Amino acid sequence: MPSSSNRNNPENRFVYQEFGNGNSAAFERATPDLPPEKQNVRVQATRAGRKGKTVTVITGFQTNQETLQALLKQLKTQCGTGGTIKENELEIQGDHKQKILELLIKLGYKAKISGG
């Protein structure tokens, strides 16, 4: 008979498990790491949900987090402003559509401006 401390441990409690030993890393969605020339990237300036502050949002990346971090750092340096990564999208503070578009094209991305 199992001890009560082992039975009440939340890590050992599961109702049903079909395969394996519960390795959650196997269930994470793999992000394809495509080269820049195969990625269709969109650049858009928006104020929606940001209390009137304009940010430039770059979407459509199909690459890993490390590449996005390096690209974000490069774009922030070139624009002289701050930025962040949210859900595989880059957000750069301010309206820098043209400058970012030129930089992305120079880096080999297929970039376009979207929205007004």
TrEMBL record:
Spans annotated as Disordered: 25-49
Domain of life the protein comes from: Bacteria
GO molecular function, one term: mRNA binding
Entry keyword annotation includes Protein biosynthesis: yes
Record's keyword terms, sorted: Initiation factor, Protein biosynthesis, Translation regulation
Record-linked CDD domains: YciH_like (cd11567)
Domain SUI1: 50-108
Keyword Repressor among record annotations: no
UniProt cross-references to InterPro entries, sorted A to Z: DENR/SUI1_TIF, SUI1, SUI1_arc_bac, SUI1_dom_sf
GO biological process: formation of translation preinitiation complex; regulation of translation; translation reinitiation
Pfam families for the chain: SUI1 (PF01253)
PANTHER family (UniProt xref): DENSITY-REGULATED PROTEIN (PTHR12789:SF0), DENSITY-REGULATED PROTEIN HOMOLOG (PTHR12789)
UniProt similarity note: Belongs to the SUI1 family.
NCBIfam families xrefs: PRK07451.1 (NF005669)
Protein name according to UniProt: Translation initiation factor
